[in-house]
Structures are given as C-alpha cells and as structure tokens.
Amino acid sequence: MGDPLSVASGLIAVVTATLQSSKLLYETIQSFRNHRTAVLDLVRELKGLESVLSPLQDHVRSDETAFLPLKVPLIQCRQACVDFQILIEQNSRRTRAETRTSWRDWAKLMYMNGDIVSFKELLAGYKGTITIALADANLRSSKVTLQVLNDYKNLICDTKLDLEKHLKDIDSKLQDIVSQGATAEAAEGQANLRKFENEKESTERCLDYLKHLLEEINGMSFQPVFTGSASNTAVMSISAGNMTLADSLTISTLKTCSYNLSDTIDRLESHRDNTEENLRLRSLVQDLNQKIDPGANRETLQNELESTKQCLSVCDRASQWASSGRVHVVEDISVGNDGKQICVSTLGDLFNIKGARAGHGSIQFFGSVSEGSLNDVLRSQNQRQYVRNEGTVDEGCPYCVAPDQPLPETFLPHVSQSEMLQRMRVTADL
C-alpha cells in the first residue's frame, strides 16, 4: 500500500496508528468554521470511529488473536484518513493563508472518485465492522439477553448491507477506470473549465451594465419646468411642499430602482467570486489529476475492495455465531423444599427462564458456565451434603470439609460464590 505500516506490523501498532490518524483528521476538520451538513456528518462519523477504536485498542492489548481479521481493514482505514488529510491540506493551503476557508473547498474534495459523503460512508463501514467485532468479544465474555442478541443480529445485517453496497460502488469505479480513457477525462475537464470561464465573463458584463445604470440614476437631478421664455426660466430645487404627485412617484420609483440595482450588483459580485473560486478549484483538480498516476488510483480502489471483502468476512462469522440458535427456553419450572435442580451448559448457550419457583431450603441453578465453574458448584454441594450427613462439622461453615475426607479428583479448588457467579453467563426473567 506504499506505507510503512503493513500486514506484517503488529495489530496493536495498526490499531494505534489508525486511532491517531482518525483523531488528526477529526481535529483538522474541526479547526475550520462554518461547516455545512455534509461536513458535520463527517465530523460525527470520525468521532464515532474514535469511540470504537479506543476500546479496540484496550481489547487488542489483552487478546490480539481474536481481532486479527481486522488488520487489513484497519490498515486501509488508516490510509484513507491519511489520504483525506492530505487532500484537505492541499485544498485549504491558500484559504488558510487568508485566514478563511469556504464550503466550496469542501465540496470539491474527491477521494476514490467519490465526494465527502462517499468518504463518510466509507468510514461508517469500518466503524460498523469494528463495532461488530467488539460486540462479539463482549457477548462471549459477559451477560447477554435475548434483546441484546437480537440487536446484535440487526447490527450485523445493517453493516453487511452497507458493506455490500460499498463493494458494488468500488467495483463500478474500477470498471470506470478501465473503460474510460485519459483523453475523455481531459476533454471533460476542459469543457467544464470553459463553462466556468464563460459564466465569469457573462457575470462581469452584467455587473458593468448594472453599475453604469446605477451611476446614471444616482447622477440624475430633477428641476421644475416653468412656462415662459428661456430668459425668465428660473432653476429651483424641489422642496417636499412643492412636489406634485408626478414628481413624487417618479422620484420614489427611481429610488426603488436604485436599491434594486444595488442589491443585484451585490448578488452578481458574490456570484462572480464563486465562479472565480470554482475556476481556481477546477484548475487545481486538473493539475492534481495530471499528477495522479491512474495505476495508483486503481491500486487504491483494489486495496479498498480487498478490505471491504475482509469486513464482510468478519460480519459473516459474527452472523453465524449470533444465529447459532442455542437458546434454551425454560418455563414454569419448580423444585420443592430441600430439593436440588441444576441445568447448565458449558458451550456458551443462552437460557431464557420464565416462571421458576424454588421451595424452602432448595437449590435451583440455571446458566451457562465454564467447566471449571460447574465443578466448583458440584464440589460445594457435595461438601454441604457431607456436612448434613455426618453432622460433625459446624453448620455455620457449610463449605468446610472434614480433615480426613479426600477431594474428588474431578473437582477443582473451591472459589467463592461471587467469583463463580462472575463466570456465569445467564439470563432470567422471573
């Protein structure tokens, strides 16, 4: 990928570099003012990406193996952030010198033949894949309910749909690169430049004409006309009291015309500035396109294609696990006084328990536990039964064992009930 960070790098280094690149891009975009909707959406997406990369960094430090499938997508995500950072710096260099930046700069940013909205959707795909990987790790090591599992399935489905759409877009762009020649692109660029040049010239002509009209109107003076010989004609200014209705209407109309002309001139000047800015940006884009190697652009798209396929693979594996269907439903189950009832799974299954009832002094245990925790439970119950049968050990210490009583070989050393419960993954609706 033309970057020192590669598949051979350690996963923690990849995650850290991706997090740093996303933060830098976020801070760069935040440094500009007057954001429009599309830019604000990108800022929020970058913040969301940071919110999943930070916990991923913690998880990878403790268990790197579980997240190895994310390495290629993370490398590509980091590269996308770095490339977009470079695009921003190239397009904002002039405006920064003038202590301003405009929406027109953002509107012309193009990455992998897509605009800023397309780039936001690209980041959303990476964020969704990382979120699924984190959720998968959490679901395997913590409490989970049916509602959480269903939400997880919905997240996987939504992310897969987005990634499949992105995959089609990448395929389409690759086909366009192959089918379109550089000559056609150059001709299209020249046509667009001519269009903006013509628009600029037309706007300047309109401005000159309107300014001329405004000068004429502002230079007009109105004098009353008296009958009689020229020698007896007096030149007088018109006071408000001497104005006729015709004088008043004429002056009022001309003033309105003057205001309208001024407003139109302001709007045309703004339009002219916009056109000049577009011309500058078109020239910049054309220069960049001439410098960009078509082969490099194709390589970027191909890397993105492979990365997206890897993201889909992560989603497929997560979907298979989430759809395994190992949910045991237990309804209206009860145990009498001093009875014992144990129903467990050591395979990570879920239990949906409704209407469980236990009598006085009874034990009722449902859940998904490790094999070691199950041995601990059985050991504890064996010790309690021994105390009751022998009657030689203080009842206040039900888990104590007689000094000469050997432990069963299948049992592990005893752990507290709180530790045992922490190892369980069980859901109950009593």
What would a concise description of this structure say?
This protein is mostly helical.
Question: What does this entry look like structurally?
Answer:
- With 430 residues, the chain is mainly α.
- The protein has 3 domains: 11-181 and 293-322, no CATH class; 197-276; 327-429, no CATH class.
- The protein contains 11 helices and 7 strands.
- The longest helix has 47 residues, at 245-291.
- The radius of gyration is 38 Å and the shape is elongated.
- The two termini are 55 Å apart.
- It comes from Fusarium oxysporum f. sp. raphani.
- This is Azaphilone pigments biosynthesis cluster protein L N-terminal domain-containing protein.
- Residues 3-209 form the Azaphilone pigments biosynthesis cluster protein L N-terminal domain.
